[in-house]
């Protein structure tokens, strides 16, 4: 695996005004991307964004860089990441670019790229862009400069695409659904999709002001959604992240249903209808209980590294169609090319309607193992996970768990965090073990400050 200079596991991301998320860097990035991606003759790049206030600044810088390279930018305005992937395909564009930091706070932002087929860029293309960044920005002649335009019907196009993935013989008119759009890119999309399919929709998180994206709402904070589902006596709740490629659901009792559980429900419905092809890809974070549920049905299951690009790569290698992360990235290659929260949610609702069972009842067939997840903020240069003390406490925890549990520590590919996961059969045991591991990691971080 190559060492990336700018690109992480999900594009380029950071705090606005620092590191790579500055106007001058993004202008140069637009120029480099334009030079590398202009392979198909359309000379057009689709640019979408979420609702962060910094999106205005960054899309202007991107457009200037692309124009200097001789490519035209077609803006969608605020639009979910998977919508940009879809529009890139339908417009036969050279590529799609999304300005978003997904589930991060508003003061972060990032740049994601899609190929002309609507999939994540291969490593070699990202490397070519990074290499071109090191060269001088030489503007094309005036007659060859790119232009800027706006796709005025982008939202309508994507709404119809999402609706087209829902079975035509079904309707949502028996369901009351609370939808939390996290004040993000789905705010004007998801409620319309569900309403047009017949649901009674209670929308929350649909008043973006540029600075409230993901704030106390969405996939990273379900409390508001859970309370509203109970208050409204709703059948189900749907939470999206800031750019709409993640979804977490809530049943009518307020219980969380994560991406791995949803992948099971979707795969089981396809298995029941004899339309499932192959198996399901999860990640190292996938709960052991979900894996055992797949085994119970005889559905093959494998784990990839954490990150939707790794899930997708594994799906492609195996020729399978369903992959997911616990965090809510769900990839359904029989429906679209990338993780899509709206489309994934529709497939779970489909399973509810076909089986005439509530989301709570559908999840009863999965017995989750107790799991403790801890995030520790980390911004140092030296990786604390390489410290002998951390390696020792991990080995001690694994010895105590024996074969009944798992320990996983990793650096986040999207945020400056160390993520700790301890899983086992005994909740009290994993709570103690995760506490000791966390304390050791914190001490190592402090020692290297």
Automatic annotation (TrEMBL):
Residues annotated as binding Mg(2+) are 102, 241, 243, 245
Keyword line: Isomerase, Magnesium, Metal-binding, Phosphoprotein
The reaction(s) annotated as catalysed by this protein in its Swiss-Prot or TrEMBL entry are: alpha-D-glucosamine 1-phosphate = D-glucosamine 6-phosphate
Q: Which GO terms describe its cellular component?
A: cytosol
User: What residues make up the catalytic site?
Assistant: 102 (phosphoserine intermediate)
Phosphoserine occurs at 102
Named cofactor requirement(s): Mg(2+)
What function does this protein fulfil?
Answer: Catalyzes the conversion of glucosamine-6-phosphate to glucosamine-1-phosphate.
UniProt modification remark: Activated by phosphorylation.
Which InterPro entries is this protein grouped with? A-D-PHexomutase_a/b/a-I (IPR005844), A-D-PHexomutase_a/b/a-I/II/III (IPR016055), A-D-PHexomutase_a/b/a-II (IPR005845), A-D-PHexomutase_a/b/a-III (IPR005846), A-D-PHexomutase_C (IPR005843), A-D-PHexomutase_C_sf (IPR036900), A-D-PHexomutase_CS (IPR016066), Alpha-D-phosphohexomutase_SF (IPR005841)
Q: Which organism is it from?
A: Candidatus Erwinia haradaeae
State the similarity comment: Belongs to the phosphohexose mutase family.
One GO MF term: phosphomannomutase activity
Q: How is the cofactor bound?
A: Binds 1 Mg(2+) ion per subunit.
Q: What is its EC number?
A: 5.4.2.10
Q: Which residues form the Alpha-D-phosphohexomutase alpha/beta/alpha domain?
A: 4-135, 157-254, 258-366
Q: Where is the Alpha-D-phosphohexomutase C-terminal domain?
A: 373-429
Q: PROSITE patterns under this entry?
A: PGM_PMM
Single Gene Ontology BP term?
carbohydrate metabolic process
What is the protein's name according to its record? Phosphoglucosamine mutase
């Amino acid at each position: 695996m190559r060492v990336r200079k700018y690109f992480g596991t999900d594009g380029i991301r950071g705090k606005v005004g620092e590191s790579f998320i500055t106007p001058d860097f993004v202008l140069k990035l637009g120029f480099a991307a334009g030079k590398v991606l202009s392979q198909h003759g359309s000379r057009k790049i689709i640019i979408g964004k979420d609702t962060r206030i910094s999106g205005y600044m960054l899309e202007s810088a991107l457009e200037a860089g692309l124009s200097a390279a001789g490519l035209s930018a077609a803006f969608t305005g605020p639009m979910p990441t998977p919508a940009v992937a879809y529009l890139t395909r339908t417009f036969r564009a050279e590529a799609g670019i999304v300005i978003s930091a997904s589930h991060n706070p508003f003061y972060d932002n990032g740049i994601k790229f899609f190929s002309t087929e609507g999939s994540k860029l291969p490593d070699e293309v990202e490397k070519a862009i990074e290499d071109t960044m090191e060269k001088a920005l030489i503007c094309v002649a005036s007659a060859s400069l790119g232009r800027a335009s706006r796709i005025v019907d982008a939202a309508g196009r994507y709404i119809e695409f999402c609706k087209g993935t829902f079975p035509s013989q079904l309707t949502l008119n028996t369901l009351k659904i609370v939808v939390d759009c996290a004040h993000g890119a789905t705010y004007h999309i998801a409620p319309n999709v569900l309403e047009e399919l017949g649901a009674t929709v209670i929308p929350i998180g649909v008043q973006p002001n540029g600075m409230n994206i993901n704030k106390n709402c969405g996939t990273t904070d379900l409390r508001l959604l859970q309370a509203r589902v109970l208050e409204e006596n709703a059948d189900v709740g749907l939470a999206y992240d800031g750019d709409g490629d993640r979804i977490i659901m809530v049943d009518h009792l307020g219980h969380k249903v994560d991406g791995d559980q949803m992948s099971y429900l979707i795969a089981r419905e396809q298995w029941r209808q004899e339309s499932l092809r192959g198996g399901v890809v999860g990640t190292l974070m996938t709960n052991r209980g979900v894996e055992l549920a797949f085994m119970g049905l005889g559905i093959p299951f494998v784990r990839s590294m954490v990150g939707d690009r790794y899930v997708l790569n594994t799906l492609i290698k195996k020729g399978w169609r369903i992959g997911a992360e616990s965090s809510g990235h769900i990839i359904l290659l029989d429906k679209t090319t990338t993780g899509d929260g709206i489309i994934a949610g529709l497939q779970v609702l489909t399973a509810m309607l076909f089986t005439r069972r509530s989301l709570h009842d559908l999840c009863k067939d999965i017995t989750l193992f107790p799991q403790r997840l801890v995030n520790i903020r980390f911004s140092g240069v030296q990786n604390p996970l390489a410290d002998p003390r951390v390696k020792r406490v991990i080995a001690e925890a694994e010895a105590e768990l024996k074969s009944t549990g798992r320990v996983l520590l990793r650096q986040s590919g999207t945020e400056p965090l160390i993520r700790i996961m301890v899983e086992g059969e005994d909740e009290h045991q994993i709570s103690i073990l995760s506490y000791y591991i966390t304390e050791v990691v914190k001490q190592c971080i402090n020692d290297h400050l």
